[in-house]
Each structure stands twice: as C-alpha cells, then as structure tokens.
C-alpha cells in the first residue's frame, strides 16, 4: 500500500486538514525555521550565545525530521505521537530560552508553534482512532 493510500484509510477527525495542505504549510514554516534557527546557530557559532542555548533548536530539528519516517515510513501513529510531543516540547523550550536575547525569534515562530500545537492534537486524535 502506498503512503498516500495508507494515510487516506486512517480514521481522521472531520477537522483534519486535507493532505494537499501540508506541503504548502510546511514550505512556509521551513523558511521561517531556516531564518530564525539559522540566526540562533550563527549566534552560537560566533560565541555570542552559549552552544547550550542552541541545543533545543538542534533537538527540535532532529525530532521534526524524524516525524515523517515514523508516521509514514514505519506507519506508526504511536511513535509519531511521541515524536510530535517532543517537537512541541523542544520548540517551547527553544523559544523560551532565546526570548531574552532575540525576542523576534519567538515572534517569527508563532506560526510554527501554532501548527505544531495543532498537529500534536491531530496526531493524538488519529492515534486514538486507529488503535
């Protein structure tokens, strides 16, 4: 079964966005992430902030990258639910940590935060409905 067919057969809530919407949304979010996270990594690289301050940003990227292979490669709703929780948690940690130094990074990532919060609720709902 192809990934598209597998996702289409899942029991999703009525409020789940159509599959075609994920690509455009993530394209915009990845631009925001590249600019804002790149700025944080530059600050860490130049020694303007501690490398430890960049840690939640690195972890967020790792967990974000793991979601698609877990959800669609392994077809594991449970692992994807755990992972999206880690994406949300590291994002909150990252934004709270950088706010005193570069508040604009938090403001720029509000769309990402909203989307990941929504995606977390959606993933929990999909996981519960497809046990």
From TrEMBL:
Keyword field: Membrane, Transmembrane, Transmembrane helix
Recorded GO CC terms: membrane
Residues spanning the membrane: 21-43, 49-67, 79-99, 105-126
Main location: membrane
Membrane topology of this protein: Multi-pass membrane protein
Any Pfam family: TspO_MBR
Family label: Belongs to the TspO/BZRP family.
Record-linked PANTHER family: PERIPHERAL-TYPE BENZODIAZEPINE RECEPTOR, TRANSLOCATOR PROTEIN
Descriptive protein name: TspO and MBR related proteins
């Amino acid at each position: 079964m192809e990934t598209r067919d597998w996702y289409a057969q899942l029991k999703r809530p009525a409020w789940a966005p159509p599959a075609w919407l994920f690509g455009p949304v993530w394209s915009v979010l990845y631009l925001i992430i590249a600019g804002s996270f790149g700025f944080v990594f530059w600050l860490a690289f130049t020694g303007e902030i501690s490398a430890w301050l960049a840690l939640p940003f690195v972890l967020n990227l790792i967990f974000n990258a793991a979601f698609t292979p877990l959800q669609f490669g392994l077809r594991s709703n449970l692992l994807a639910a755990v992972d999206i929780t880690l994406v949300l948690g590291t994002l909150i940690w990252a934004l709270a940590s950088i706010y005193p130094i570069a508040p604009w990074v938090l403001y720029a990532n509000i769309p990402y935060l909203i989307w990941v919060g929504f995606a977390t609720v959606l993933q929990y709902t999909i996981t519960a409905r497809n046990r």
